[in-house]
């Protein structure tokens, strides 16, 4: 069994819980409240900004042009393509995308981004990939399963979201990151393999947490004014 197959096996209950989370069920049946959609987009816009920065750090640790090209393409993907599913949720909520940008992070999004930044700044390339991988991998599986389960028609409120993450062209990035990690794991020492496993599992848990944060419209225990980040 490949290293990432073992990771996927261990994380199976979390992948399953994510697919059955009420926010993902809401994407399937077209029923989510405006405030839940707005909270998700506000938080995900900032989350993806951090993701771009982490890809930048990952590039600084790459040894081959192929690896650099992969992260470079992913930066463009986040900046220019991943705005489409956000726009879909904004349309469904009846708000403009511009209005939802620049907000501060809620506790779970803060936790998730700090975890990834920590892995990026202190870790090896293998450790960074372990922390990043649940992001494309869980969305790929959500998209593919929703395509099977819902097979949405164009009048489904989340048609664009589901068909975006469920499209075939989503597969290669997860597979490429997995191959780099499988190769890395062949020679990594035991202690590092343990960290890689822990980073991967924590990111899976925080993927679940992110859906939950959006569903519950999570705020800080002592919420101040909903101020913009800048
Ligand atoms: C929290 C989160 N995880 C994953 C994805 C898919 N790139 C996303 N947009 N946001």
Automatic annotation (TrEMBL):
Q: Residue limits of the Thiaminase-2/PQQC domain?
A: 10-216
Does the UniProt entry include the keyword Ribonucleoprotein? no
Does Hydrolase appear among the keywords?
A: yes
Under the heading SUPFAM superfamilies, the entry gives: Heme oxygenase-like
Per UniProt, which keywords does this protein have?
Hydrolase, Thiamine biosynthesis
> What NCBIfam families does the database record attribute to this sequence?
salvage_TenA
Give the metabolic or biological pathway: Cofactor biosynthesis; thiamine diphosphate biosynthesis
InterPro entries, alphabetized:
Haem_Oase-like_multi-hlx, TenA_E, Thiaminase-2/PQQC, Thiaminase_II, Thiamine_Salvage_TenA
Q: Under which EC number(s) is this enzyme classified?
A: 3.5.99.2
- Origin species, per record, is Guptibacillus hwajinpoensis
Q: Which reaction does it catalyse?
A: thiamine + H2O = 5-(2-hydroxyethyl)-4-methylthiazole + 4-amino-5-hydroxymethyl-2-methylpyrimidine + H(+); 4-amino-5-aminomethyl-2-methylpyrimidine + H2O = 4-amino-5-hydroxymethyl-2-methylpyrimidine + NH4(+)
Which is an annotated GO molecular function term of this record?
thiaminase activity
Q: What does this protein do?
A: Catalyzes an amino-pyrimidine hydrolysis reaction at the C5' of the pyrimidine moiety of thiamine compounds, a reaction that is part of a thiamine salvage pathway. Thus, catalyzes the conversion of 4-amino-5-aminomethyl-2-methylpyrimidine to 4-amino-5-hydroxymethyl-2-methylpyrimidine (HMP).
Please report which protein family the annotation says this sequence is part of.
Belongs to the TenA family.
Assembly notes: Homotetramer.
Q: Which protein is depicted?
A: Aminopyrimidine aminohydrolase
Q: Which domain of life is it from?
A: Bacteria
């Amino acid at each position: 069994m490949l290293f990432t197959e073992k990771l996927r096996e261990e994380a199976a209950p979390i992948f399953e819980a994510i697919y059955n989370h009420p926010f993902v069920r809401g994407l399937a049946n077209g029923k989510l409240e405006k405030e839940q959609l707005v909270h998700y987009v506000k938080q995900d816009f900032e989350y993806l900004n951090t993701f771009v920065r982490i890809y930048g750090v990952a590039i600084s640790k790459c040894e081959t042009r192929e690896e650099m090209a992969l992260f470079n393409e992913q930066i463009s993907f986040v900046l220019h393509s991943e705005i489409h599913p956000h726009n879909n949720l904004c349309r469904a909520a009846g708000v403009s995308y511009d209005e939802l940008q620049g907000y501060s992070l809620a506790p779970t999004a803060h936790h998730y981004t700090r975890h990834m930044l920590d892995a990026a700044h202190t870790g090896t390339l293998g450790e960074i990939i372990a922390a990043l991988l649940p992001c494309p991998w869980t969305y790929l599986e959500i998209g593919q399963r929703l395509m099977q389960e819902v097979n949405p028609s164009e009048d489904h409120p989340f048609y664009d979201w589901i068909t975006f993450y469920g499209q075939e062209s989503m597969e290669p990035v997860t597979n490429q990151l997995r191959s780099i990690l499988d190769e890395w794991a062949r020679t990594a020492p035991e202690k590092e393999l343990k960290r890689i496993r822990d980073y991967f599992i924590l990111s899976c848990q925080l993927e679940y947490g992110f859906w939950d944060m959006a569903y519950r419209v999570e705020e800080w225990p002592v919420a101040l004014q909903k101020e913009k980040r800048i």
